[in-house]
Amino acid sequence: MADLPLQPGSMIGILGGGQLGRMLALAAGRLGFDVAVLEREADSPAGRVCAHTIVAPYDDAQALAALAAIADVVTYEFENVPAAAVASLVGMGVDVAPGPLALAVAQDRFEEKTFLNANGAPTVAFAAADSPEAAVDAVTRIGAPALMKTRRDGYDGKGQRWVEHAADAARVFADLGSVPVIVEAPADFVRELSVIAARGRDGATAVYPLAENHHEHGILRRSLAPARAAPALTEQAERIAARILAGLDYVGVIGIELFELSDGRLLVNEIAPRVHNTGHWTQDGCEVDQFEQHIRAVAGWPLGPTRAIAQVEMLNLLGDEAETWSKLAAEPETRLHLYGKRAAKPGRKMGHVNKVRPL
Ligand code: AMP
What we know:
Strand content: 25-35%
Mean pLDDT: 97
Number of helices: 11
Shape: globular
Number of strands: 17
Structural class: alpha+beta
Low-confidence stretches: none
Bound molecules: adenosine monophosphate
Helix content: 25-40%
Radius of gyration: 20 Å
């Protein structure tokens, strides 16, 4: 196990080489750490800014052993790394943060909502199904219309369909691939919000101001932060975050997606055991951003302050939108963050901007 707090010059391992890994690596570098990334693809956004890149599938035993040999702690940038890979690192004595429980809970929507409710974090009503008959039964119990989602591997709105009538449930179950699903009641929300929070090795917690999020075709388009929010709403979000962090015995930054209902209640939609797209505003809007905060937490350093110092509109640059970089770079209130991805496919997250105003 690692000797904590990690000294500058230590090696932090990251599973996953996308933009989140890249921004984590840049933050780690600023604090004096070296980074080794394990990623399937060569020439990845994170790999190009790291001291070491191991190019291999996440469950490659040799690659995991190579990472274990050089990394003092290991973290990950996305929640769909195979649980077996993390288990194998833990088996080799590697300190992995966030731990296997957070990963297991976040990888399965049914486990996730069951955990949330058991820990006092409210969600919509839900039911699991793993056959066409059970899917019809689940929609009948929850009531149509309902949202059917695959339990695993969904992201950016993929792997989910509305079911208008219980009689359609078997067909939608088949359309989703006849895999285990969860059926959710519709959340009648007025806004989608998120809260980014962190927990250190010593159990200390830090919560950022709420962000208000707008999606298009299931992909995050823009976040406004700090969101306009009465103190009672902020307190509710902080209470929910504290329960989730404690329930998972969490170490690191977590993203918690919320629905705000018309009666002012918050429901949790889902949690991401990692830095989160709706927390990118903290790079230019907070004293210590989510990336540095995550590195501090996993390294056993004290958490930093989460106070907002600016009002931010974060806009994702999707596909060829990143080609407008020279125009964006000329705007004095715009902070440009590009991920160094080689190919701009439609809808692919190529970068983001934080448009900054005084608070
Ligand atoms: P998810 O993949 O669970 O994050 O869902 C993607 C988007 O679908 C959310 O950001 C919401 O806009 C919408 N959504 C998800 N679950 C529900 C629900 N139970 N009721 C209404 N809308 C939902």
